Amino acid sequence: MADLLIVLTLALVVAAATAAVLTRDPARQALVLALLGLALAVLFTVLQSPDVALSQLAVGSALTPLMLLLAVRKARGRGRGRRSGRKRGPA
């Protein structure tokens, strides 16, 4: 029974990792990365490593995707400012 649970969680990790790679939009990619971190935390819990699971939950599911979303937001904000400056034309 334990082997089946490990195989199922490994399949969940593989599916989440594949979805993270195939997602094109950086904001959605950060959210899928959070799901991947959650799947890895479940895997570590199943493998009886609760300390690693808690670390993965904090860093992989919360902190890293949050930092990526903030970076994407800041990069998109800068891109808008540059585009509007170019469209004004000669004075």
Structural overview:
The chain is built from three helices and no strands. Helix 2 packs antiparallel against helix 3. The mean pLDDT is 88. With 91 residues, the chain is mainly alpha-helical.
List the helices and strands and how they pair.
Blueprint: H1 2-22, H2 26-46, H3 50-86
Helix pairs in contact: 1-2, 2-3
Helical content band:
over 70%
* Regions with little confidence, pLDDT below 50 for 5+ residues: none
SSE order, as H and E?
A: HHH
Radius of gyration: 19 Å
Key descriptive features of the protein:
91 residues; mainly alpha; 3 helices
Quick structural summary:
α1 packs antiparallel against α2 and α2 packs antiparallel against α3. The chain is 87% helix and 0% strand. It has three helices and no strands.
